[in-house]
Amino acid sequence: MANPRVHEIAAELGVESKVALAKLKEMGEFVKGPASAVAPPVARKLKAALEEAGVTKQPEAAAAAPAQEKPASKPAAKPAGAKPAAAKPAAEAPAPAAPAAPAAAKPAEAPAAKPAEAAEATAPATPAAPAGDSPTPNAIPRPMARPGAPRPGNNPFASSQGMGRPRGGNNPFTARPTRDSPRPGAPRPGAPRPGAPRPGSPRPGAPRGGQGGPGGGGLGFQRPGAGQPGRGAPGRGGPAFAGRRGRGPGGTAGAFGKGGGKAKSRKSKRTKRLEFEMREAPSLGGVRVRRGEGQVIRMRRGASISDFAEKIDVSPGDLVQVLFHLGEMATATESLDESTFEILGEELGYRIQIVSPEDEDKELLEGFGLDLEQELEDEDESDLEFRAPVVTVMGHVDHGKTRLLDAIRKSNVIDGEAGGITQHIGAYQVYREHEGIDRAVTFIDTPGHEAFTAMRARGARVTDLAILVVAADDGIMPQTVEALNHAQAAGVPIVVAVNKVDKEGANPAKVRQQLTEYNLVAEEYGGDVMFVDVSALTGKGVDELIEAVLLTADAGLDLRANPNKEARGVAIEARLDKGRGAVTTVLIQSGTLRIGDAIVAGTAYGRVRAMTLDDGTPVDEAWPSMPVQVQGLSSVPRAGDTFLVTEEDRTARQIAEKREAVERNALLAKARKRLSLEDFKLALEQGKVETLNLIIKGDVSGAVEALEESLLKIDIDDSVDLRIIHRGVGAITESDVNLATVDDAVIIGFNVRPDTKARERAAREGVDVRFYNVIYAAIDDIESSLKGMLKPEYEEVQSGVAEIREVFRSSKWGNIAGVIVRSGTITRNAKARVIRDGVVLADGLAIESLRRFKDDVTEVKTDFECGIGLGKFNDIQLGDEIETIEMVEKPRD
Ligand SMILES: Nc1nc2c(ncn2[C@@H]2O[C@H](COP(=O)(O)OP(=O)(O)OP(=O)(O)O)[C@@H](O)[C@H]2O)c(=O)[nH]1
């Protein structure tokens, strides 16, 4: 007999098919459409449910999924408030629950309004076209070069001094205020730039005096407007801790969190739902879990099963089981890696999206009331001032990148003192008079596209422009192409330096010719890319190259930033100095960095204790595009880490600490997933590995050899390769584990065990270590693994029992059980079940908090008292027992 179809059941009851469909969905049944057939028990349930609901009534959203959207969508669901039934389907995308539609329309207005506002806000932010017909699109009216006027600081469009070195006393990069004779009129508040927001934009006297230079010391630092009302960036008036996201995504508001007072009806609904689920939901290895319909679930890196369970509103224990049957073993609170989540999500009908590190950091900062993108958007044209272009040098190995960077740096100190010691600080600025104006250009002195890519990989957009170095005697080489691909991918304009033109056999024309194939067409060939012949050896062409950089920058880039706010930028490089602690070269991207500022860079934080330029000159301030060496950070940030100044030390520290936690989590997730014998075949099929690498350690050399020999004899098909990358006699050591980590190997211990360090490391890194005392067992396992047949065997072990002596009710944390441990040990990562009068009340719960007095602890032993939080599970009473279970892998032998 055929199973009834949905529309038939609907017709029988005189309801529309969509109502029946909605009901089914609510029951957790996944059916495609009215023509889908359902099993008789489901049909019965459906009828019963429809009748019970009164067939024409709107379907309730009892089984509504938790809000999976980002918090942004939350307000949408809320305003509907009064009718949760209507609000819920609205939050879900294509809810077939048609009756909910009118109600859904209302909340939908809320988010719609936002983009509109945003669009409005951004519109005026587009850079206005410069007035006049200047060939340099971003060059707003320049201050006419007034001969003799001091160069206004770092402003690339500031006027030259006209005499001697163009750098005047107020030029921070003069670096030698003493040489430049008395600083011409130190803080010269004059020289207003037409249209400039800060009259007297020259930042007088930024470099701290230097030796004996008049006007040195602090005096010259009074920038006009230095007393600017607060450093608080305009537009960011609100308290730093506004805490927009009161609670992270996936708070406690799930299906259980509909507000108090309705415990009874909530429970009955829940029971009903569970009943449906248990009976009708697809079974995965004995557990029934409601399936999703392809919804996207955003998870943080390092999230655990509990986090996922909360988002899809199922029990973590069930997910542990499902995962277990998918061949993965994890506890509810353990961090999972992306691919494990994917497998789990796919099985359950969800699309898992791991939040990118950038988004994660953005959300983290938003938690502190910092939205850097918004900050930039909110900036007004009048806030922006010109900054120097930031240039990276890239090219094939040995084509002269380092040499060229040196030549450029030297060209800047032609009349500097002989033998002047310039520290290598990873970034420096040079000055050129360009069209009558003294301009600064910032060079990132970490040649190579690796550095460029590493920074880009961390989301740091540092470079405005790339110099592609091509040796004229060698032509285009693989890394040349790689470098230009990187630059083009980043949308960064390129200037080509055809280097080594002094060499015999140099053929610059050929370089031009070759590069046309890569869309880099020289101006002289009718293209728009500037090619400059240079010799890093003799210095020929270096000035022209800088000129070309400035022309290219002016032609296509909007190089402006707001200097009047707390500094934001990127760490270019950092090292630990014995005497000075962490020394970090930072590039300011916007705002002004000052001594004493509270600063956070990646996971490092602190206060700016001292700042120096590349030549060691101390400065008190650094503004956009200016690289400085900063002392005062607690630790060494990584190249490419962004940094920012916070109003308070505390905020900087908290941001750093949160980031560290995030990183730890991400690392845990990564560590979890190394190759194990069980998943070898899968990894092989997915192309993640090509060979099974083994490390064999044994108690005697004979055994090791015998094992090796037998293993190599295992007959496998051609697609699989088995390699023994290391073998030896003795305990498994940390270096064995290290090797396994690098080569993704499985360690076989024959009658030997790892030492403590090795064990810890293996656990941390997720290395699969197997122990055998019978050779055949080892061979069997490896063979089945190669054939993809090896499944781990686990058994449940009761690890602890605790009796509830008191129940603490907390609105924030839910009910907390005050217990005494009766036997064994209660551990934080264990699964738990609640037993009342000898009957299991709930299973598969996660111990989400374990505390002794005020402290979080990882385990509590027999006879000790502690507090246990079971997450959303609140149904606990005095006298209940909490039993913890651990899944222990059964040893094979
Ligand atoms: N004749 C001549 N030799 C040069 C010129 N520029 C660099 N060289 C030489 O080429 C070699 C490589 O120069 P580097 O500056 O180290 O090249 P690089 O691109 O930085 O090399 P890697 O750092 O290894 O990628 C050195 O021996 C330089 O002396 C030049 O303009 N003319």
Question: Characteristics of this structure?
Answer:
893 residues; alpha+beta; Elongation Factor Tu (Ef-tu), domain 3; 9-stranded antiparallel beta sheet; 23 helices; 29% helix; globular; binds guanosine-5'-triphosphate
Question: What report would you give on this structure?
Answer:
The strands form eight sheets. Strands 26, 27, 28, 29, 30, 31, 32, 33 and 34 form a nine-stranded antiparallel beta sheet that branches. Strands 7-8-6-9-10-11 form a six-stranded mixed beta sheet, sandwiched between helices. Helix 5 (84-91) packs across helix 6, helix 8 (305-312) packs across helix 9 and helix 20 (701-713) runs parallel beside helix 23 (775-786). The protein has 893 residues and is α+β, with helices and mostly antiparallel strands. It is built from 23 helices and 34 strands. The model is unreliable at 56-264 and 414-423 (pLDDT under 50). 29% of the residues lie in helices and 23% in strands. Among the domains are: 6-53, no CATH class; 287-355, no CATH class; 364-368 and 563-668, Elongation Factor Tu (Ef-tu), domain 3 (Beta Barrel), CATH 2.40.30; 389-558, P-loop containing nucleotide triphosphate hydrolases (Rossmann fold); 687-788, 3-Layer(aba) Sandwich (Rossmann fold); 793-890, Elongation Factor Tu (Ef-tu), domain 3 (Beta Barrel), CATH 2.40.30. The longest helix has 24 residues, at 649-672. It binds guanosine-5'-triphosphate. Guanosine-5'-triphosphate binds next to helix 13. Residues 184-205 have a biased composition (Pro residues). Residues 59-131, 141-152 have a biased composition (Low complexity). This is Translation initiation factor IF-2. Belongs to the TRAFAC class translation factor GTPase superfamily. Classic translation factor GTPase family. IF-2 subfamily. It is found in: Cytoplasm.
